[in-house]
Structures are given as C-alpha cells and as structure tokens.
Specification:
This protein is an all-alpha fold. It contains 1 helix and no strands. The longest helix is centred in the middle third of the chain and has 32 residues.
C-alpha cells in the first residue's frame, strides 16, 4: 500500500457526478412539492 503514489486529478469523478445529479433532482422535486403544498394551503385557508 505504501508503494502507491497518488497523482492529483487522476481519480474518476463519474460516481460523484451521478450522485450530485441525483441530489439536485431530489432537491428540485422537493422544492416543487413544497411550493405546491404551500399554494394549496393558501388557497384553502385563504
């Protein structure tokens, strides 16, 4: 293990990009759902 040298910038970032894309999708959908819920509550309770 000590024989391996890390080269800066050599790591694959595909998994991180997929995870970040999923995170942004979940956050976006959550914002839409919360906004719709707040609008409905406002319309119902006026």
């Amino acid at each position: 293990m000590a024989d391996q040298k890390h080269e800066h910038g050599s790591m694959s970032t595909d998994d991180q990009e997929k995870t970040f894309g999923s995170f942004v999708g979940v956050v976006s959908k959550s914002v839409v759902v919360i906004t719709v819920a707040l609008v409905l509550l406002y319309l119902i309770n006026g």
